[in-house]
Amino acid sequence: MKLHKNEAEDTYDVIVVGSGAGLVGAVAAAARGLRTLVIEKTEFIGGTTAYSGSGLWLPGNAAERRAGVDSGPDQARPYLDAIVGNDAPVALREAFLSAGAPMIDELESHSWMGRFYWLGVPDYFEKAPGSLPGGRTIFPEALDRSALGDLEPLVRRPQWAERSGAHPGDVMTGGQALIGRLLLSFMATGNGEIRTNTPLTGLVVEDGRVVGVEAESGGEPITLRARRGVILAAGGYERNAEFRQKYQPETTGEWSQGAPGNTGDALLAGMDVGAATDLLEEAWFAPGLVVPNDRPVFYTSVWSGIWVNAAGERFMNERLPYDRSGHEILRAHRNSDVSHIPVHWVFDQRQFDNERAFSSPPVAPQSTDWFDIDEFLQAGVLQRADTLDELADLIGVPAEALAKSVAKFNEYALSGKDEDFGRGDAPWDLNIVNTCGPHHDGPNPCLGLIDKPPYYAAQIVVSDLGTKGGLKTDDHSRVLREDGSVIAGLYASGNTMAPMTGRIYPGAGGPVGSSMVFSYIAALDMAGADD
Q1: Of all residues in the chain, what percent are helix, strand and coil, respectively (each to 5)?
Q2: Is residue 43 a contact partner of residue 197, using CB atoms and an 8 Å limit?
Q3: Helices 510-527 and 23-31: crossing angle, nearest 10°?
Q4: Per-residue DSSP letter, 17
Q5: Going by C-beta distance under 8 Å and a sequence separation of 6 or more, which residues neighbour residue 411?
Q6: Predicted confidence (pLDDT) per residue in 88-110, tens digit
Q7: Of 324, 279, 320, which Cα lies nearest the Cα of 502?
Q8: pTM over the 0.85 mark
Q9: Any idea what DSSP says for residue 54?
Q10: CA 289 to CA 459: how far, in whole Å?
Q11: In whole angstroms, what is the distance from residue 20 CA to residue 40 CA?
Q12: What is the pLDDT of residue 353?
């Protein structure tokens, strides 16, 4: 589909490759009078951002001030310095801290964007200086689907609806609402144009400067020129099997939550013109619950049971924030002779009997009626047994070790203190309890007894919300060569860009928030450039 004013005109001021959070750069450029084109590989606008809860980790913005949260750059800087360290340039996080609040101010000036609101989601590294128990995460307002009119079919569905084929409802929330609002704001500028089903195939370079893109439309090659520059904001390479095997051999794109079109096209195009890369072995990792005949389900936290490795031993706090959790599984798997992929998630019948639970494995549901115990059992992704010994045999772990792990955890549940891994000590651990209520009784709401047969075991693999290594950039989002020089006319943001956060995930909305900011920074740089 094409949404542009003059089909014969293929020269623009700005071209944005990808239609997720990079739309912020498109809005900012178009609002400054720059004729701006967004090209999208798939038939839908939104990328992985449309799947997200659309939390934005952005210290010190207007939404936080309205909520009375004291979280400006000076408060957030020590936190980022401590957790990122030398894994990413200091200049990038300084740019992020400086631009985040003005970006929100500008977005809220667009009538379609509404007002963002703060919701208390704890920062992910509770022991780091400057960590906030209430967090720095803001969210967009919901959006009535009808507001989009003819544009509505363009917006990618939430992942649960896309998987099931169910209608996503009359009100857009989360990432869908964010993308819908950005799309309306972009088109309202009068300078915005969109082409879907237009995959990038390369960059046009003249005299060392990127002056456009090569793409395909209707199966035919096309050339689109950009006077001011090109922003590569087309996600990571999570669906690129060759790159996954090269940089993340323990994982697979079949476990990823990334959007279907994310095969690293923009990353490869940048590399082809001499761009430097960094942190390609990294992703926004997360545990994934294996389900029948589909990609693993992403979830933010557990509330019952324990995880054991192939030796039947518990090895971590199962309630760690998801990216820390995914990294911890990988660390244990890489540094041990014992397999930790898949992890065996062991829980008991209490989970299904508890009226405060969701009658499902101990994670929040992706959609109504998503879990059918018989289907899970028949598919072999869930095991059930009357005794722990029988369960151990079904999942192939030593029975004595599993019994010991469960018994030790039950002692902690009775005492209220996880002496091994501190489950229930951190604000994030308690977050789901505060949100959904406790799912079992006891002195520690994060520790529930495992003693009521039958017993169950589900499988956990290392999923991700997209890869995060990418093209090196400076603090203006300009792509750099290996020698540190700027590739004129080329910018990157989001998962196409080597992350400002390095190897870590600072808090809920880190990926979307930073993608928005660096797209915005790129637009500001282009708006200030000469023709």
Answers
A1: 35, 20, 45
A2: yes
A3: 30
A4: E
A5: none
A6: 999 999 999 999 999 999 999 99
A7: 279
A8: yes
A9: -
A10: 6
A11: 9
A12: 76
Write the DSSP symbol of residue 157: P
Instruction: Give dist(CA 63, CA 141) in Å, integer.
Output: 11
Both structure tokens of 193:
């144009």
Range scoring the smallest mean pLDDT among 261-275, 426-440, 460-474: 426-440
| Exposure b/e, 333-367, CB count within 10 A at least 16 = b | beeeeeebbbbbbbbbebbbebeebbebbbbeebe
Neighbours of 380 (CB within 10 A): 11
Q: How confident is the model at residue 389 (pLDDT cuts 50, 70, 90)?
A: very high
- The rounded distance, in Å, linking the Cα atoms of 264 and 470 is 9
CA distance 172 to 168: 8
**What is the residue-wise DSSP string for 90-156?**
HHHHHHHHHHHHHHHHHHHHSGGG---EE-----S-TTSTT--TT-SEEEPPPEEGGGGGGGGGGBP
Q: How many helices (H) and strands (E) does the chain have?
A: 15, 22
CA distances from 268 to 40, 274, 432 (A): 16, 10, 39
Q: pLDDT tens digits, residue range 114-160?
A: 999 999 999 999 999 999 999 999 999 999 999 999 999 999 999 98
Summarize the confidence of residues 479-503 as an average pLDDT: 98
pLDDT score for 359: 62
Between residues 403 and 299, the one the model is more confident about: 403
Residue 421: Cβ within 10 Å count: 18
Helix (H) or strand (E) holding 271: helix 265-272
Give me the pLDDT at residue 370, please. Answer: 73
Tell how strand 117-118 and strand 137-139 pair up.
antiparallel
Helix (H) or strand (E) holding 327: helix 322-334
Q: How far apart (Å, rounded) are the C-alpha atoms in residues 228 and 208?
A: 14
Radius of gyration in angstroms for the set of CA atoms belonging to the chain, rounded to a whole number: 23
pLDDT at 438 over 80: no
| Cα three-residue angle 106-112-116, rounded to 5 degrees | 60
Residue 127 CA: distances (Å) to CA of 52, 81, 95, 202, 516? 26, 13, 24, 44, 27
In this predicted model, which residue has the larger pLDDT, 435 or 390?
390
Closest to 189 measured CA to CA, from 447, 430, 3 = 3
**Pick from 436, 470, 489: which is nearest to 284 by CA?**
470
Backbone angles phi, psi at 353, to 5 degrees: -85, -20
Q: What angle do CA 312, 317, 321 make, to 5 degrees?
A: 130
B/e letters for 429-453, b = 16+ CB within 10 Å, e = fewer, are bbbbbeeeebbbebebbbbbbbeee
CA distance 425 to 404: 23
Q: Tokens in use for 356?
A: 């405060």
Provide the residue type at 124 as one letter: Y
* C-alpha to C-alpha distance for 30 and 28, rounded to whole angstroms: 6
